[in-house]
Amino acid sequence: METIKLNDGNTMPILGYGVFQIDKNQTQKCVEDALSVGYRLIDTAAIYDNEEGVGTAIKASGIKREELFITTKLWINNISKKNARGAFETSLKKLGLDYVDLYLIHQPFNDSYGAWEVLCELKKEGLVKSIGVSNFYPDRLSEFCFHNEIKPALNQVECHPFLPRFDFENTMKDLGITMQSWASFAEGQNGIFDNEILKAIASKYNKSVAQVILRWLIQRGIAVIPKTLSKERMIENISVFDFALDSSDMEKIAEIGKNEFIICNHRELETINFLLNLAK
Ligand SMILES: NC(=O)c1ccc[n+]([C@@H]2O[C@H](COP(=O)([O-])OP(=O)(O)OC[C@H]3O[C@@H](n4cnc5c(N)ncnc54)[C@H](OP(=O)(O)O)[C@@H]3O)[C@@H](O)[C@H]2O)c1
């Protein structure tokens, strides 16, 4: 597995397994399957309500803790100086772990500055190895870095061929922050798996559309965490290190994108109000 070196010196697998929208009763089995086929990074969140399933699968796998990279996230109602530590302790307990590898502020709203102070303390105490953010757009991320001594190691954002985020890529490179794509497959929406350009490239390399998308992101240095319930697809999605897209195919995929938000635009007033209401 290829890895990425984060700005705090820690190393992270470039590809992992995401468990958003996996029912809590199915999570243990899915994560056990993922670990059995070679995934070592698992991405969960307090709001996914399946941290226990992730923890049980980790325990059952018998894999050494240091070989795993576990990410979880602080949900919006707890993004504050007052609540962040308690919320972290709840996540840690549900996961049954002594520490998490990466802890993210899930949304760029509420008191992210106060919460960040707590995340910095958790890092100093060794309860979290790396700290980062999610859904921070370039302007907010730049400001956040400007005002904080410790910069986020990573920013997890919606990124797929319809929303390639070249603007983010440059800002994050300048700031030294790793970009991780969520919804690399646009959650299967917008006909992504039937896209003619992606299908033609996939057939050229004798790979699937899913593999081409993941490869395109990885070759840009963007980390990925695809979700699937199927063990066959887990194997398919992790089998992306035995081929490379040439520069003309990289460009063809870059041209698909019209900067379409398929899942969630954090600049849309409706989305902002929806999330702010959840913070109450
Ligand atoms: N930070 C955030 O705000 C945020 C938001 C959303 C997600 N995330 C994280 O990012 C992870 C990935 O994003 P996501 O789950 O939203 O969506 P995604 O990975 O883009 O797409 C998952 C969808 O693609 C299908 N799929 C997976 N592999 C496939 C393949 N090889 N061929 C065909 N279909 C395939 C899955 O179906 P099956 O399951 O039926 O195979 C599912 O419908 C999440 O699980 C979560 O950990 C973070």
Automatic annotation (TrEMBL):
Keywords, alphabetical: NADP, Oxidoreductase
User: Entry's Gene3D superfamilies?
Assistant: NADP-dependent oxidoreductase domain
Marked site (Lowers pKa of active site Tyr) residue numbers? K73
- Return the CDD domains for the record: AKR_AKR5F1
The record lists substrate as bound by H106
| InterPro entries for this protein | AKR, Aldo/ket_reductase_CS, NAD(P)_OxRdtase_dom_sf, NADP_OxRdtase_dom
Q: Name one Pfam family in it.
A: Aldo_ket_red
- NADP-dependent oxidoreductase domain residues: 21-256
Keyword NADP in the entry? The reply is yes
UniProt GO molecular function: oxidoreductase activity, acting on the CH-OH group of donors, NAD or NADP as acceptor
Q: Member of which family?
A: Belongs to the aldo/keto reductase family.
Q: What name does the UniProt record give this protein?
A: Aldo/keto reductase
**Source organism:** Helicobacter trogontum
